[in-house]
Specification:
The protein is α+β, with helices and mostly antiparallel strands. The protein folds into two domains: 7-179, Jelly Rolls (Sandwich); 184-300, Homeodomain-like (Arc Repressor Mutant, subunit A), CATH 1.10.10. It is 43% helix and 14% strand. The radius of gyration is 20 Å and the shape is globular.
């Protein structure tokens, strides 16, 4: 797995310079037209890797997107919400890419709500959406507001840009209401436990070296860390997600395993060890339970 691409590397690869705002304490935000690359060869081969920044991209026209362990062939319109926890890349299948995207850092949205609580940014969420022409046109209006705002000299323009970024997030959630949680679930103590569990689970990733190993790997490990009984944790997660603690852990480990199998040359024993399995046969059993194939079978496919 390649090292996470930094925002500085993103700018050097795309436009060759670093904007001065990148080092501001408020964090960084920028927005781009894909049409800016029309008629020229795409500037560089974006590596399949995690990035240390967020991206919201409206992709129009044929593209290929690799996100986590899945590959998407975009033939029409797609809205993608990329985050620092999940590796991805994308490449236009044409020299006339259309659409727009914005990038921003964790610091930019700090204390502006918890973006990781949204289903779009949670494991097992829906970070890639097919959108209609009408929905895409509505999103382009928001992106155009970003272009206007960032070019202006309004003192509080970055506050406006934060609102516009979140407007895209909420636009997607409203278009796909099944992705949102019930308000009552959000307000009770159980939702807090779910959020803390997901944060602890995600904090262990990405795996970027065969010498890196996760340490929280069982329901008991997480319950102990959260200082609650394992049965209570299991009931809360089951009620909120429909899945047990062990199922959620297994699915997340399988997601990371698929990415490592697809994009590294590490052997299966090394991957198993990184994911907390001292016995590779146990890893193979868990992987097959979650993916209906063996690690070797998945890699050969």
């Amino acid at each position: 797995m390649q090292k996470a691409l930094s925002l500085e590397e993103f700018y050097r690869n795309t436009i060759g310079v670093l904007p001065s705002e990148i080092f501001k304490k408020i964090g960084h935000f920028n927005v781009f037209h894909m049409e800016d690359f029309e008629g020229v060869e795409f500037p560089y081969e974006m590596p399949y890797s995690r990035k240390d920044y967020y991206k919201i991209a409206l992709i129009r026209g044929p593209h290929k997107v690799e996100y986590a362990d899945k590959t998407f062939d975009v033939k029409h319109n797609m809205l993608m919400f990329a985050n620092p926890q999940i590796p991805y890349n994308w490449r236009p299948a044409t020299q006339s890419p259309r659409g727009a995207y914005c990038v921003f850092t964790e610091e930019f949205i700090k204390d502006f709500g918890n973006i990781r609580e949204y289903p779009l940014y949670q494991p097992g969420g829906f970070p890639i959406l097919d959108v209609t022409d009408e929905e895409a046109a509505e999103m382009i209006v928001t992106f155009n507001k970003m272009f206007t705002e960032i070019a202006g000299d309004y003192k509080y323009k970055y506050d406006v840009l934060r609102n516009l970024a979140f407007e895209l997030v909420h636009m997607a959630l409203k278009m796909r209401p099944a992705m949102t949680l019930d308000d009552q679930e959000r307000s009770n103590a159980h939702y807090r436990i779910v959020s803390l569990f997901q944060e602890l689970l995600e904090r262990q990733f990405p795996i970027e070296s065969p010498r890196q190993q996760i340490h929280l790997k069982s329901a008991g490990d997480f319950a102990s860390q959260l200082n609650i009984h394992m049965n209570h944790l299991n009931r809360v997660l089951k009620a909120a997600t429909g899945k047990t603690t062990s199922q959620l852990i297994g699915e997340r480990l399988a997601l990371e395993a698929r990415a490592l199998l697809k994009h590294t040359n590490w052997n299966i024993s090394e991957i198993a060890w990184c994911l907390g399995f001292e016995d590779p046969s146990h890893f193979i059993k868990v992987f097959k339970k979650n993916t209906q194939t063996t690690p070797k079978g998945f890699r050969s496919e």
